[in-house]
């Protein structure tokens, strides 16, 4: 690579448009809804998100950006039409059955990243036909001469309690690992990048046991290396909740991204983008926290309750 490229993931915290969609639970995010989600507030959030992405890397944008908590294609179009994207970005997105009406997507630089295939991977929970959550997004790309497989995730939350919700995240991990294993069965050196808001920690069973994402680089054929391990061990996090920093937003890679020729990732860790414009000082807690857009229907005007995470791509 002639110049350093980065890839990133960012949970955009309930990025809804202002139009009513009868098929989605978007009533809170309407002008007359409980959040009073007006066009001015929507445009403000759009501008904040754009500025946050633009601040990740000096003078250029990440070539691939996984995003979570987007309502639909409308907000993605409004985002990539912002001047900073220079008309050079596209997106991959599928509607999923999430009860909150939010999805994941992949933004990509069309002159650098070629989309070869894409599909949504439903998350099935055995014995619960009423359970619906975000699909996992799979995108097969070509970057220069390398095939790179991206998975964008937003696993079920801990809202009902960690133990009660744990089977749902394990189900997501199993679905993801099954697809990734199929790719590796055809090519043990396949280059796979798994990113997302997993609503679990690097040491959680869903990630460490079921996804087989390890804290070390000495990984087997169907295992992965978790770039969030080092920040997590340093007690860093991508969001702040219940008086703790939580490392929910992670980037995980296959052995093919660590070794061999062509594009790879040599950094042992991801970077949490704690730009000052994404934070506010909580005087009661005495620390800086992500400046979110809403909390309990109170408008704060911030960008997101999560911080972006990113990593640089290298090439031999």
From TrEMBL:
Domain of life: Bacteria
An annotated Gene Ontology molecular function: catalytic activity
Residue ranges annotated for the Endonuclease/exonuclease/phosphatase domain, each copy included: 6-315
Residues of the signal peptide: none
Pfam families listed in its UniProt record: Exo_endo_phos_3
Name recorded for this polypeptide: Endonuclease/exonuclease/phosphatase domain-containing protein
Record organism: Marinifilum flexuosum
């Amino acid at each position: 690579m002639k110049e350093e490229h980065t890839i990133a993931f960012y949970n955009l915290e309930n990025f809804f448009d202002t139009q009513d969609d009868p098929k989605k639970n978007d009533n809170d995010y309407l002008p007359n809804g409980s959040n009073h989600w007006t066009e001015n507030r929507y445009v403000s959030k759009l501008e904040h998100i754009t500025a946050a992405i633009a601040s990740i890397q000096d003078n250029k944008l990440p070539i691939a950006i996984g995003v979570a908590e987007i309502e639909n294609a409308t907000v993605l179009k409004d985002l990539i039409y912002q001047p900073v994207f220079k008309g050079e970005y596209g997106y991959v997105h599928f509607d999923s059955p999430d009860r909150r009406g939010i999805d994941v997507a992949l933004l990509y630089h069309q002159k650098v990243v070629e989309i070869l295939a894409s599909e949504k991977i439903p998350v099935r929970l055995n014995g619960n036909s009423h359970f619906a959550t975000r699909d996992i997004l799979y995108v097969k790309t070509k970057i220069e001469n390398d095939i790179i497989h991206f998975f964008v995730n937003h696993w079920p939350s801990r809202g009902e309690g960690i133990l009660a919700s744990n089977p749902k995240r394990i189900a997501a991990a199993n679905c993801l690992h099954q697809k990734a294993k199929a790719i590796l069965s055809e090519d043990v050196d396949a280059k796979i990048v798994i990113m997302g808001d997993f609503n679990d920690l690097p040491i959680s069973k869903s990630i460490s046991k079921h996804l087989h994402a390890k804290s070390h680089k000495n990984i087997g054929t169907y295992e992965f290396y978790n770039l969030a391990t080092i920040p997590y061990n340093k007690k860093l996090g991508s969001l702040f909740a219940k008086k703790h920093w939580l490392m929910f937003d992670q980037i995980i890679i296959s052995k093919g991204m660590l070794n061999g020729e062509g594009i790879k990732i040599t950094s042992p860790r991801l970077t949490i983008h704690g730009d000052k414009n994404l934070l506010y000082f909580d005087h009661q807690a005495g620390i800086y926290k992500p400046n979110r857009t809403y909390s309990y229907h109170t408008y704060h005007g911030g960008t997101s309750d999560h911080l972006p995470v990113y990593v640089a791509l290298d090439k031999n």
